[in-house]
Amino acid sequence: MMDWTEKLRKETGIRFLTTEPSKIEQQSFSMIKGELGEDFVRSCPEDKLAVLCRVIHTTADFSYKENLYFSENVIEAAKEAILNGMPIITDTTMAMSGINKRAAKKFGISVNCFIGDEDVRNDAANTGYTRSAVSVEKASRSYPDCIYVVGNAPTALMRLYELICEEKIRPRLIIGVPVGFVNVVEAKELILRTDVPCIVARGRKGGSNVAAAICNALLYMVERDLG
């Protein structure tokens, strides 16, 4: 029986690459590294390259080569937080859904999002704050020692900054990659003023998918380190 991709090639004249699930990601990463360039790949630390490649794999956007910021020793801090089973708090259910629960569970990590909780909705309505900002306040009470992941809401980063300054929360790692226009650039820059280890997509770009991709890249590299 003729392979279905070969049939498509004969019918359309288009040459397709592999459709084997196990090889698609492998080939994608190979193509990404090829476009990043041999000099860049050789000079970039392996763990940072793994994060960057997964972000590009998720977005097909090579501008992250320039705007994805890693604070000093952030990869080491992230690995330690994962090995210690620090809970992950996300600003959106989309980011929470994108994080690999199998990999997180392997390290005893819970993945949480409070945006839809009734008390968060009520507090947001009563105070006029965004639910994302109120969610950070709830996290500071329940999980002051955590990994905080923001892919959508700059107000989450703004409130996170305030609570860090007030010593009410102390994340082991912040992934700050909200996407958009209003307060997005400014909120990200606030996080860079803290001494909390962080990975930040400077500028307007980002998203819940990018936040989840970074989380997954970190989880996978710790799995890899453990063999």
In short:
This protein has 227 residues and is of the alpha/beta class.
Walk me through this protein's architecture.
It contains 13 helices and six strands. It is α/β, with parallel strands linked by helices and about 230 residues long. The chain has a single domain, classed as 3-Layer(aba) Sandwich (Rossmann fold). A six-stranded mixed beta sheet has the order 1-6-5-4-2-3, sandwiched between helices. α2 packs across α4. The termini are far apart. About 40% of the residues are buried.
Structural features:
single chain; 227 residues; alpha/beta; Rossmann fold; 13 helices; globular
Question: Would you spell out the secondary-structure blueprint of this structure?
Answer:
Layout: H1 4-12, H2 21-36, H3 38-43, H4 46-59, H5 64-67, E1 68-70, H6 74-83, E2 88-90, H7 93-98, H8 101-106, E3 111-113, H9 118-127, H10 131-142, E4 147-150, H11 154-165, E5 173-176, H12 184-192, E6 198-201, H13 208-225
Parallel strand pairs: 2-3, 2-4, 4-5, 5-6
Antiparallel strand pairs: 1-6
